[in-house]
Amino acid sequence: MPDGKQRHFPGPVTGAEIAAAIGPGLAKAALAITVDGAPRDLATRLSRDATVAIVTATSPEALEIIRHDAAHAMAEAVKELYPETQVTFGPATDTGFYYDFARDTPFTPEDLARIEQRMHEIVDRNEPVTREEWDRDRAAEFFNAIGEKYKAEWIHEIPKDEVISLYRQGNFVDLCTGPHLPSTGKLGHAFKLMKVAGAYWRGDARNAQLQRVYGTAWANEKELKHYLLQLEEAEKRDHRRLGKELDLFHVQEEAAGSVFWHPYGWTLYRTMEAYLRRRLAAANYAEIRTPQLLDRSLWIASGHWEKFREHMFTFAESDEKTLALKPMSCPGHIQIFKQHLHSYRELPLRLAEFGSCHRNEPSGALHGIMRVRAFTQDDAHIFCMPEQITSETVAFCRLLLSVYRDFGFEDVRVKFSDRPPVRAGADATWDRAEGALKAAVEAAGLPYTMNPGEGAFYGPKLEFVLRDAIGRDWQCGTLQVDFVMPELLDAAYIGEDGQRHTPVMLHRAIFGSFERFIAIVIEHYAGKLPLWLAPVQARVLTITSEADGYAEQVREKLAAAGLRVETDLRNEKINYKVREHSLDKTPLLLVVGKREADDGTVALRVLGGKDQEILALDAAVARLKDKARPPA
RNA sequence: GCUGCCGUAGCUCAGUGGUAGAGCACCCCCUUGGUAAGGGGGAGGUCGUAAGUUCAAUCCUUACCGGCAGCACCA
Length: 632
What we know:
Elements: E1 13-14, H1 15-22, H2 24-29, E2 32-35, E3 38-40, E4 45-46, E5 52-55, H3 62-81, E6 86-87, E7 96-102, H4 109-125, E8 129-134, H5 136-145, H6 149-155, E9 164-169, E10 172-175, E11 191-200, E12 209-217, H7 221-236, H8 239-245, E13 249-250, E14 260-261, H9 263-282, E15 286-287, E16 293-295, H10 296-302, H11 304-308, E17 314-316, E18 322-325, H12 330-337, E19 342-343, E20 349-358, E21 374-384, H13 389-406, E22 412-417, H14 427-443, E23 448-451, E24 461-467, E25 473-482, H15 485-488, E26 493-494, E27 500-501, E28 504-513, H16 514-524, E29 538-542, H17 548-560, E30 565-568, H18 574-583, E31 588-592, H19 594-599, E32 601-606, E33 613-616, H20 617-627
Parallel strand pairs: 15-20, 19-26, 22-23, 29-30, 29-31
Antiparallel strand pairs: 1-4, 2-3, 2-5, 6-7, 7-12, 8-9, 9-10, 11-12, 13-14, 16-18, 17-18, 20-21, 21-28, 22-24, 24-25, 25-28, 26-27, 31-32, 32-33
This protein binds one RNA strand through β11, β12, α11 and α18.
């Protein structure tokens, strides 16, 4: 048992019997057991010694079982209400569950309400949930006979050495490995159906599209309520909403997938760009700029035409030339590299570009400014010798982590993506690239997880995933080792031996794209940007028009000190102005009335604070100038 | 791209088979008020686009465009 004690039974016992032997309270609370760490049904009969723990609603293993049972209850409800529906898969998720149904008629929101109602009835019926193990062919026959063709199909996919188990509750029988609760009553009522959406059978767009009904499920009502509240909070910090509220940017249908940056949003953008430009310069990158439109021949040579033409915007010209808007900057950077014959002494050569790129993303992929068709990569390519991969990777990892820290992201994970099924280059080249990158990330001292088959077509990559204030993960940075493209496009340097060699190219980005990273920063801070990033850092608010002239002096002094500052001289009450500029998340409010004008002071109120502080104007300017300074 | 839902004033939304309404924002007037909404008045909309049904369409039907959610995609 978890407490280290041993319990002995004369013969085989079930989990339920073990729980009962410990105490009647536990017997009642028991939902399942774990046997040597693996979750099992409460009815599982043990005939050997094992490490056993009783799973109750508070156990970490309980939620997944509850959610999976909720999926079954939903399937049972659907089969009762809409018997013509076929069931397919219904797993637990991080916050609940879903079940994919095959049915010609779409489920309406009213249907969802009915299904949810029926689920509650099923819980109240407290139907026993029982496990049965069936012969494979008999099970397939059974599901075919009851018209569950997807289930019957799936049975043949299950490895031969696995048992075919069915779970029965009421009149509903599902193919399932389990485990499950002992009865539907144990599920409780802390669940809610959320939405219906499309999903492909077995995740493949070529297959039939099913209807996926999503629900959320929790151990108790309190947790459910907490989760629903969290959803509301997440909605409040949605960058699309804040972009509108803070007047940062907009998108409109004539330019789907492109951003209209408003003055405040563009100020934020330029502030971040200026910051990154300083960091790159300090790390010995040279900034360049390459053309937007390039002839098809270059994209054919680079391999993009063959593999990614679908995603490129192309233009046919009258003289039979075809131009393409660049979807990435790498081939352009190689052109600059090729303008000189380079010595190995010049390497590593780091070329950076805030590269404006266009990719024709599928319409369903567009999302605010996070996933767009026109975006700007903080792209750079490091041309180096193979033996420099390690030191360059280590330096890049250090730079990236430091940049992320400056934006308030401390929790960063690294994923290693190796060769994809469709790729350029020989396997030996891939062996070399993957080996070098692995050695480098290990030298950087960063733990990483594998992401098999997810590399770029020209090489393996590291992906840097940061976690935001509400626990969501975002992949932003990347570093990719490329032995292929420099060769395809004939980049070369002269080595110590006087011979021509092909350099290795490291593709790397920290933000990924400005648009996406800005969206992440906005959501991370819920719009309450740190002082150095705020588009308007300070506002001078007048109490009466008598202070207008003085307010203008205050503004000028702050502006001269480098702050972004505006005045609000409107004929409104100070309450109104404080409220308005608290809602628009101005970090600093400087209130001035007759008293301040006479004394040469300001009343400083910091966003989120309740009080104000009276300061001499010069002292305030000195202090705020210091506080508003960007990092590094 | 696929499935479902949605598209009404600058914004958030209500509404009806007989050509529209609220709050906020905007403009004007009164108010000069000391830290999260002072009062009054006014202006503002070919109801996403195009066809169709109908005596009559913002409302019903279809297509298209765009948005949202999910799936697929993300070099």
